[in-house]
Specification:
Strand order of the largest sheet: 17-16-18-19-25-24
Radius of gyration: 26 Å
Mean pLDDT: 94
Low-confidence stretches: none
Structural class: mainly beta
Oligomer: single chain
Strand content: 35-45%
Helix content: under 10%
Distance between the termini: 52 Å
């Protein structure tokens, strides 16, 4: 069943930490009674402020790697460069491995066949292409032979190392299979330059770059009338108005940008005590807590001829297939219906239909968009329909 997992060992449920790599066992005898206990072997350092700091002793792979992107998007007939960085903790005298992909995909390059020194970082590059019009593949590493300087054959698959590090807990290091994803998407883009206002953090800018856009990050000093002229669209990251107290001070500049022909796209913001303080769009609307949490919920086209659903990509129900986790969050509400249009409707099972996931209005020569659609989840996951719809929002035409 989707969303459920079988756990073979029930004792592992709720276990906060893995067992230590090594334990020290102590045996005591008191009054002729023997008993033992163990303690994890840890690494201790002394910090001038924190005092004694203990971290777990880790046993790590001798070689790890990391792709420069988790997802490579191919649009049209283009190829994409794939880059892998290998990290070693010992020397390898005999190395033979190469990048792999699925059927109908081809990787040119990506071969590693030279000795690798201890503590070396090595970049490995390749180009990936496909003749298919759509679809995806996993990019992995096939190992023919890896022999270290002690003549030991290493047979374990290569892994990608991840770290979770906060001051109040011991560092957590975990490993996942070393792989990336390539997706061929049939998407047409218009415009080239995007200004992006960073919010609470998302991977939408990287997805936009994968689509071929030039992305410039915006901050208070460069959100000016003159600087914004260069952008075909400006996009606010998730919760940008919640985490950037200065956003309201840029309201007039952003509205003038729209009036002069720009497209301003605002991703979701949460509500709370700041709700009455946020000045987002050119006309009034509120933000509610409505979510559509079923990623397979039907999406109804309420305005079939709306430009956002027709140009440059024709959006249909197929574009909402394969979405992950949810459809939309923190939707628009109480909209000024004399100005805003809401082309999409959706709802969870046994819930009323809502149309606040995407609202669009013309303002001067440009356009304003507020959307609770979860682009921040779908674009990094390589969902073709999300790419196509985002391309349409960026390409909204100027008004006469």
């Amino acid at each position: 069943q989707s969303g459920s997992f079988d756990v073979n060992d029930q004792q592992l449920i709720g276990k906060a930490e893995n067992d230590p790599a090594y334990k020290a066992v102590f045996t005591f005898s008191i009054n002729n009674s023997d008993f033992t206990f163990d303690r994890p072997v840890q690494y201790k350092t002394t910090d001038p402020v924190k005092g004694e700091v203990y971290q777990p002793l880790r046993v790590v792979p001798a070689i790890t790697g990391e792709f420069d992107e988790p997802l490579y998007v191919l649009d049209g007939a283009k190829e994409k460069q794939v880059q892998l960085e290998l990290h070693t903790r010992k020397s390898f005298n005999d190395v033979s491995m190469h990048m792999t992909s699925g059927e109908d995909w081809k990787i040119n390059g990506g071969i590693i066949g030279d000795p690798i020194k201890k503590d070396e970082s090595r970049d490995v590059k390749a180009n990936i292409t496909t003749n298919t019009s759509s679809g995806n593949t996993e990019i992995g590493i096939a190992i023919n032979k890896i022999i270290d300087d002690q003549n030991v054959l290493h047979t374990q698959p290569l892994m990608d190392e991840h770290a979770i590090s906060y001051e109040h807990i011991p560092a957590i290091i975990y490993y996942t299979p070393l792989e990336a994803k390539a997706e061929k998407i049939n998407v047409i883009t218009k415009g080239k330059n995007i200004g992006y206002i960073i919010g609470a953090g998302d991977k939408v800018p990287q997805a936009l770059q994968q689509m071929g856009y030039n992305v410039t990050f915006l901050h208070p000093n460069n959100i000016t009338d003159e600087n914004l002229k260069q952008f075909d669209a400006v996009i606010a990251g998730v919760r940008a108005y919640n985490v950037n107290a200065w956003m309201n001070s840029k309201y007039e500049v952003l509205m003038r940008y729209i009036q002069n022909g720009g497209n301003y796209i605002v991703q979701y913001n949460t509500i709370g005590f700041q709700q009455t303080k946020m000045k987002i769009g050119p006309y009034d609307f509120a933000i509610n807590r409505t979510r559509v949490t079923d990623e397979n919920a039907d999406v109804h086209v309420l305005i079939p001829n709306h430009i956002a659903l027709n140009s440059p990509n024709k959006i249909s129900s197929h574009d909402f297939e394969g979405w992950i986790q949810e459809r939309s969050i923190y939707q628009a509400d109480q909209i000024d219906s004399a100005h805003y249009e809401a082309p999409l409707g959706m709802h969870d099972p046994n819930e009323p239909e809502t149309d606040g996931s995407l609202i669009i209005t013309k303002y001067g020569k440009g356009n304003f968009v507020y959307t609770g659609l979860v682009f921040f989840r779908e674009l990094p996951a390589g969902i073709p329909g999300a790419y196509r719809l985002m391309a349409n929002l960026i390409a909204l035409p100027k008004n006469k």
